[in-house]
UniProtKB/TrEMBL annotation:
<keyword id="KW-0786">Thiamine pyrophosphate</keyword>
<dbReference type="InterPro" id="IPR000399">
    <property type="entry name" value="TPP-bd_CS"/>
</dbReference>
<dbReference type="GO" id="GO:0030976">
    <property type="term" value="F:thiamine pyrophosphate binding"/>
</dbReference>
<keyword id="KW-0479">Metal-binding</keyword>
<dbReference type="Pfam" id="PF00205">
    <property type="entry name" value="TPP_enzyme_M"/>
</dbReference>
<dbReference type="Pfam" id="PF02775">
    <property type="entry name" value="TPP_enzyme_C"/>
</dbReference>
<comment type="similarity">
    <text>Belongs to the TPP enzyme family.</text>
</comment>
<dbReference type="GO" id="GO:0000287">
    <property type="term" value="F:magnesium ion binding"/>
</dbReference>
<dbReference type="GO" id="GO:0050660">
    <property type="term" value="F:flavin adenine dinucleotide binding"/>
</dbReference>
<feature type="domain" description="Thiamine pyrophosphate enzyme TPP-binding">
    <location>
        <begin position="153"/>
        <end position="202"/>
    </location>
</feature>
<protein>
    <recommendedName>
        <fullName>Thiamine pyrophosphate enzyme TPP-binding domain-containing protein</fullName>
    </recommendedName>
</protein>
<dbReference type="InterPro" id="IPR029061">
    <property type="entry name" value="THDP-binding"/>
</dbReference>
<dbReference type="InterPro" id="IPR045229">
    <property type="entry name" value="TPP_enz"/>
</dbReference>
<dbReference type="GO" id="GO:0009099">
    <property type="term" value="P:L-valine biosynthetic process"/>
</dbReference>
<dbReference type="InterPro" id="IPR011766">
    <property type="entry name" value="TPP_enzyme_TPP-bd"/>
</dbReference>
<dbReference type="GO" id="GO:0005948">
    <property type="term" value="C:acetolactate synthase complex"/>
</dbReference>
<feature type="domain" description="Thiamine pyrophosphate enzyme central">
    <location>
        <begin position="6"/>
        <end position="72"/>
    </location>
</feature>
């Protein structure tokens, strides 16, 4: 509901430049209907075993993402036609408009008093209440999806947000929170978990 700009970019792009991205379940393995199967894929990864693992690539580059980006920018400044820059700028403006609409829809949902309460509203109220330096833990499963939309709404200090990587395993939230509290006993630790994730620890 709040990711139409991302989906439009994924389905409408003629070329995708992938920088250190694991094409796993979190982006549907690069498959339809999210991704256009006719688009060209340029995959950059420092690990050669990740290249083309889940989706065929048109151009494979094994290297450090920062180094590759700097080389690409240098070449683009020399050789990229100005009309192509204009075309990309127009497409970016179009995506920004879609993203703005996403944000408006999200804000409308967050202010809604309809019952039953939407999970987004619950997460928003928690994030709005806790101090900025809270050690925040998000469990796996659907609650992570609902929370991820909102994490970027408020700036957070480095190393204050913890989650299970890639597979989104359920039940990791409470153990992570205990570990975070042991590591920083002077900080408030908050774990946002769903009913299924919580029951893994009962």
């Amino acid at each position: 509901m709040t990711a139409m700009a991302y989906r439009r970019a994924a389905i409408e792009a003629n070329v995708v430049l992938s920088l250190g991205c694991k094409w796993d379940h979190t982006i549907l393995y690069g498959a339809s209907p999210i991704w256009n199967q006719d688009q060209k894929l340029i995959q950059v990864d420092i690990d050669p075993t990740e290249i083309g693992k889940n989706r065929p690539v048109n151009v494979a580059i094994v290297g450090d993402a920062k180094a590759v980006i700097n080389q690409l920018l240098e070449e683009m400044e020399k050789n990229l036609p100005k009309e192509k820059v204009t075309e990309w700028s127009q497409w970016n403006e179009y995506l920004q408009d879609v993203r703005k609409n996403d944000k408006q829809q999200l804000e409308k949902m967050l202010k809604s008093n309809k019952l039953p309460m939407k999970p987004h509203r619950l997460v928003y109220e928690v994030l709005d209440f806790i101090p900025d330096d809270t050690q925040l833990v998000i469990d796996g499963g659907d609650i992570y999806v609902f929370s991820l939309d909102l994490i970027s709404l408020k700036p957070r200090p480095p190393r204050s947000f913890f989650r299970s990587i890639s597979m989104g395993h359920l039940g990791t939230g409470i153990p992570y929170a205990i570990g975070a509290q042991m590591a920083k006993p002077d900080k408030l630790v908050v774990c946002i978990t769903g009913d299924g994730s919580f029951m893994f620890n009962i």
